[in-house]
Write a structure and sequence with these properties.
By secondary structure, this protein is α/β, with parallel strands linked by helices. It has a single domain, classed as Rossmann fold (3-Layer(aba) Sandwich). It is about 35% helix and about 20% strand. It has 6 helices and 8 strands. Helix 4 links the parallel strand 5 and strand 6. The two termini are about 20 Å apart.
């Protein structure tokens, strides 16, 4: 459904991305990848958003590199400049989508979920944010400073964004008066990723998707 394009970052550099826009006129959503890279699964997620009426753009944060296993994925993620990814790639993608005057938000998974929260705190073009099981380190972003609608999806069996970390995030959101929704699912980390049958939970994934689409339709 989509196509590979180039967009301009705030620093003037060109960046690659996957664009899915069935209608070509709906609000924009920047989809932020997991640590696997711009693979077929994340492209299909953008296609689903396009089918729901959004213009979805997935910046290729790893510039064409794809991880075959968690060791490679960890290596790629460890070399990613998170502040630059948020303030240049994600911000440039939002600016690209907002050229027509429509609102635009971000939706990220795992690594991308953490970047979605960073964007919500530091990228002024972000109108709404959806985070799937990702929490940035404290030095990267202060969630209590978010002033846009935020939707969070977390798994109770997650060994990274564990219940303690999620509770701390929610406390921060509450202390800052952030307009947020946070949902917990009895599932494992990456429960939305249908390409990973060892953790994929169809019921939880569908519920989180429906909630996300409704949220984005409301706020964008």
């Amino acid at each position: 459904m989509g196509e590979l394009i180039e967009f301009r970052r705030p620093d003037g550099r060109s960046a690659p991305a996957y664009l899915a826009a069935a209608s070509g006129s709906g609000p924009g959503v920047v989809v932020i990848q997991e640590w696997w890279g711009l693979n077929e699964q994340i492209k299909k997620t953008a296609d689903r958003l396009a089918a729901a009426g959004f213009r979805a753009l997935v910046p290729d944060l790893f510039r064409g590199e794809l991880a075959k296993n968690s060791q490679e994925a960890s290596h790629l993620m460890s070399h990613l400049d998170f502040p630059q990814a948020a303030q240049q790639d994600v911000r440039g993608a939002l600016q690209y989508l907002k050229q027509g005057g429509k609102k635009a938000g971000v939706l990220g998974f795992c690594m991308g979920g953490a970047l979605a929260i960073i964007a919500a705190t530091k990228v002024p073009e972000t109108d709404a944010a959806v985070c799937f099981y990702g929490i940035p380190p404290a030095e990267a972003a202060d969630p209590s400073t978010i002033r846009i609608p935020l939707l969070g999806h977390f798994a109770t069996q997650d060994d990274w964004c564990n219940p303690t970390a999620v509770a701390a995030l929610e406390k921060s959101l509450e202390s800052g008066g952030v307009p947020y929704e946070l949902h917990r699912y009895y599932a494992h980390h990456a429960f939305f990723n249908e390409a990973r049958p060892e953790v994929y939970d169809k019921a939880a994934a569908q519920l989180a998707w429906d909630r996300s689409v409704t949220f984005l339709q409301k706020h964008l």
